UniProtKB/TrEMBL annotation:
The gene is dapF. Homodimer. It comes from Alkalicaulis satelles. InterPro entries: DAP_epimerase_AS, DAP_epimerase_DapF. This is Diaminopimelate epimerase. GO terms for biological process: lysine biosynthetic process via diaminopimelate.
Length: 271
């Protein structure tokens, strides 16, 4: 599946006898032979309609994947005909609502804004971090906003994300010691009162076509820096993601989902 081009393999393990525990190098090996950004799994959960688990292509299990949540919710809506569902995840509980056009709008939970929740290695104002990175050709990017959606994001505001050497500066930011759990690095240009152009160098996956939690973080960071209101379309390489930061602090995300194909695994798989 993909969500605005963000590529996934989703395993429906709700019937599996035990939770999946893929070895990181197994995920890495799978990523060598299959083009995906994240491996997703749906598992049974007592307190929700399902639990969503997320592994980056580097094998690390992480707390949230906005586009993956949309893809999983869309699939469950197709299957059940329901129009609402609850998902558990390591990054916290989430909810999904079926839109009239059949798409899924997900409530990713609250934006977390305290430095300890990002997390950062030391206390800092998360509206505009006292942090920056030099550009190879001269110049410097400064003062990103820091937001967690159950996973860490630093969002830089720039004139043109497409003009940046992201393969050079992305890894430097991702692995900076300021971010003890590494970080997803967003590069955003506010193009109008309700439009943000965004590219994200994802922790554990690199440059992706779209990043749902990155879109949420970009809106919240832009709003906190007084650059935009609480609702916008985030224009990613792979498509447009409508995002809204509601008054209760939760962030809602929608956007396109494509099911590219499905295979039925032999019974007892993963047992
Ligand atoms: N790379 C992210 C996980 C996937 C996020 C992204 N694909 C999304 O749609 O939110 C992290 O390490 O926290």
């Amino acid at each position: 599946m993909n969500g605005a081009g963000n590529a996934f393999i989703l395993i429906d393990a709700r019937g599996a006898p035990a939770p999946l525990a893929p070895a990181p190098d197994a995920v890495l090996a799978l990523a060598e032979s299959h083009a995906f950004d994240q491996l997703l799994a749906l598992e049974a959960d007592e307190g929700a309609d399902a639990r969503l688990r997320v592994w980056n292509r580097d094998g690390g299990e992480v707390g949230a994947c906005g586009n993956g949540t949309r893809a999983a919710a869309w699939l469950m809506f197709q299957e059940s005909g329901a129009d609402r569902l609850a998902l558990a995840s390591a990054g916290g509980p989430m909810a999904a609502r079926r839109r009239s056009d059949g798409g899924a709008e997900v409530d990713l939970g609250p934006a977390r804004l305290d430095w300890r929740e990002i997390p950062l290695a030391r206390q800092m104002d998360t509206v505009r971090l006292d942090y920056g990175v030099d550009l190879p050709g001269g110049g410097r990017l400064e003062g990103p906003g820091a937001v967690s959606m159950g996973n860490p994001h630093a969002v830089f505001f720039v004139d043109d994300p497409d003009a940046l050497p992201l393969h050079e500066i992305g890894p430097r930011i991702e692995h900076d010691r300021l971010f003890p759990e590494r970080v997803n690095a967003g590069f955003a240009a506010v193009l109008g009162p309700d439009l943000i152009r965004l590219k994200v160098w994802e922790r554990g996956a690199g440059l992706t076509q779209a990043c749902g939690t990155g879109a949420a973080a970009a809106l919240v960071a832009a709003c906190r820096q007084g650059r935009i209101g609480r609702q916008a379309v985030i224009r990613a390489d792979g498509g447009d993601l409508p995002v809204r930061w509601s008054a209760d602090g939760h962030v809602h995300l929608a956007g396109p989902v494509v099911l590219e194909g499905a295979v039925k695994l032999p019974s007892g798989f993963g047992g």
